[in-house]
Design a protein that fits this description.
Elements (H helix, E strand, L loop, with lengths): L1 H14 L5 H12 L4 H10 L2 H4 L9 H11 L4 E5 L5 H9 L4 E6 L5 H5 L6 H15 L5 E5 L13 E6 L7 H12 E13 L12 H11 L4 E6 L14 E7 L1
Parallel strand pairs: 1-2, 1-4, 2-3, 4-5
Antiparallel strand pairs: 5-7, 6-7
Helix pairs in contact: 3-5
Length: about 250
């Protein structure tokens, strides 16, 4: 009951609030890293994402972050934790044409792969895999590995310019992913975490505060520095504080 009243309160406030400041706030965040938000937005809009997937409808600001970084840096090695349908890896190849991209996801037979993201139905699962494999096959710069990201603890031969963490968002996995990424990132590299909630169940695979708590602890111990960027800048995504999502940029 209290939760419903709280949501109604923020919904009422949101009806009369001017949300144009969200884009202004995001531009300030980009400026901290000398990234040009307007140029990044223009670049990502010019990439023919619809040619990759006509149904693609991603509004996440992480694409603009990637685009902004691509305007300032020429990366050679990128790691993506969480391949999903392969579209994000293809976008990375467009933005960083000289980069080799390692992208990892659970083995198709892993129980967690089967149970997450509406893949419990065998037909849906097989169609998903077919689509993912087709997307990955479109670029010879993408190296796809089926593995649990926890096993990155055994990888110490490669160092990456950019690591994108978008795997299992709950603990303990996401905490391990972040710590492994700190080991694998170059001294001047960037780690970016998706779907950062300030509130939530730390063990929930979808709505978890585990990333935020992990980053805070690492920052407190002077292991990293990090900044939060808005995940989306539309009004509806930012009405309820406990449902608001962020993207984190981590620097050693």
């Amino acid at each position: 009951m209290i939760r419903k009243i709280e949501k109604l309160f923020f919904l009422f406030i949101g009806l009369f609030k001017d949300h144009s400041f969200l884009k202004i706030e995001q531009k300030k965040n980009f400026n901290k890293y000398n990234l040009d938000y307007d140029q990044a937005e223009k670049l990502i809009n010019n990439i023919k994402i619809k040619a990759i997937d006509k149904n693609y409808n991603m509004s996440s600001e992480h694409l603009k972050l990637f685009a902004g970084l691509s305007l300032n840096f020429s990366f050679s090695k990128i790691l993506e934790i969480g391949t999903y349908n392969g579209i994000n890896a293809l976008i990375l190849t467009s933005l960083f044409p000289n980069a080799d991209i390692d992208t990892i996801d659970l083995d198709d037979e892993d129980q967690n792969f089967f149970s997450l993201y509406n893949r419990k139905n065998l037909k849906d699962k097989n169609e998903f895999i077919k689509k993912r494999d087709l997307n990955i096959s479109k670029s010879n710069k993408i190296n796809f590995r089926k593995m649990n990201s926890i096993n990155l603890i055994n990888d110490d031969q490669k160092k990456y310019d950019l690591i994108w963490i978008d795997g299992f968002h709950g603990n303990p996995t996401v905490t391990i992913d972040i710590i492994n990424s700190i080991k694998l990132i170059k001294d001047d590299g960037f780690i970016i975490c998706d779907d950062v909630y300030l509130f939530g169940d730390s063990y929930n695979p979808y709505v978890s505060d585990a990333t935020f708590k992990t980053l805070e602890e690492l920052k407190k111990n002077k292991i990293i520095k990090y900044d939060l960027f808005l995940k989306r800048i539309d009004k509806n995504s930012n009405i309820f504080p406990k449902e608001k999502k962020y993207i984190a940029i981590i620097k050693k």
